[in-house]
Amino acid sequence: MTHTPDTHARNDIDTAPVPTPAADASTPARGSLRTRGVGKTVALPDSQLTILDDIGLDITAGERVAIVGESGSGKTTLLSLLAGLDVPSHGEVWLDGVPIHAADEDARAALRAQAVGFVFQNFQLMPAMSALDNVALPLELRGKSGTQAARELLQKVGLGERLHHLPRQLSGGEQQRVAIARAFVARPRILFADEPTGNLDRKTGLAIEDLLFDMDSARATTVVVVTHDERLAARCDRQLRLDAGRLRA
Ligand SMILES: Nc1ncnc2c1ncn2[C@@H]1O[C@H](COP(=O)(O)OP(=O)(O)OP(=O)(O)O)[C@@H](O)[C@H]1O
Ligand SMILES: [Mg+2]
C-alpha cells in the first residue's frame, strides 16, 4: 500500500533551527530517507569490525518499509544512522531532506525533535514518570503543553485507565503502547520502530501492529520498522534485507 504524504497537514510543526534543504531537484524531499555508500566500523582492541558496508537506499515520503535480517546483521545500527541517533563512519545520510552526515549533534537533535519519532527495542521509558508524563515529554521539551495530546493518544492506544501508572506498573505490551504513543505525539514525519512486536504474545503483537498502521494512516507518516515478524514485514510496502551488514537486493 502506498500513500501520498500530506505535507499541508504539517504546517503546524515548529520550525527548529535545522539546516534547510537546498532547493534543487537532487535534494531528497521532506519525510524521505536517503543513504549513499554508508559504512559503520568500530575499533576493537586488535582489529576493526565492519558492522555496515556500502549501504545505499532511498525511502520516499509516506512509504512503509520493513528492515529484516538475522540477529547481528546490523538492523539496529542502520536504524540509528537513519534516525540521526548515530553517525556513519563514512558515506552520506539524508534525513527528512537534510544531509545529517554534515550536521553536528545539536542540529541532528533539533531535526530529530522536529521530524522523527523512535520506538526503541527496549522502550526506554522514563522510569520515574507516569505514562501520561512520558507521552507528554516530547511536546514539553519543545516548550508546549503535552498533557491533553498525551491523554488523547493514551486513550487511543487503550490505556485511558493507566495514565498515572509508572512504567514498572505496566505490562510489557502496555509499555510498548506507551512508547508508540510517545513516538507519535509530536506528529513526526518519519517514525522508526525497532522490533515493536518483539517479546509480545501474538494477540498483543497484532494489536500493536494495528496501532502502528492506524496511527500512520491518519497522518501518512513514513514508517521504517525493524522486525523479525513476517506478518508485520508483509504489511509494509517493501522489505529491505540486511545480510552481515550489506543490503541484499
Ligand atoms: N558499539 C559497538 N561496538 C562493537 N560492536 C557493535 C557495536 N554495535 C553493534 N555491534 C555489533 O554489530 C553487529 C550488528 O549489531 P545490531 O545491533 O545492529 O544487530 P541487529 O541486526 O539489530 O541484531 P538483533 O536482531 O539481534 O537486534 C552485532 O554483531 C553487534 O555485536
Ligand atoms: Mg537489533
Radius of gyration: 18 Å
Cα distance spanning the termini? 20 Å
Low-pLDDT runs: 1-16
| Unique ligands | adenosine-5'-triphosphate, magnesium ion
What characterizes the major β-sheet? 6 strands, mixed
Residue share in helix: 25-40%
Number of helices: 7
The helix/strand series, from N terminus to C terminus, equals EEEHEEHEHHHEHEHEE
Mean pLDDT: 88
Family: Belongs to the ABC transporter superfamily. Macrolide exporter (TC 3.A.1.122) family.
Domain ABC transporter: 33-249
Keywords: ATP-binding, Nucleotide-binding, Transport
Biased composition (Basic and acidic residues): 1-13
Task: Give the topology, please.
Layout: E1 33-44, E2 47-59, E3 64-69, H1 75-82, E4 90-95, E5 98-99, H2 105-115, E6 116-119, H3 131-140, H4 147-156, H5 172-185, E7 190-194, H6 202-219, E8 222-226, H7 230-234, E9 238-243, E10 246-248
Parallel strand pairs: 3-8, 3-9, 6-7, 7-8
Antiparallel strand pairs: 1-2, 1-4, 4-5, 9-10
Helix pairs in contact: 3-4, 3-5, 4-5, 5-6
Bound molecules: adenosine-5'-triphosphate and magnesium ion.
Residues 42, 49, 51, 69, 71-77 line the site of adenosine-5'-triphosphate (ATP).
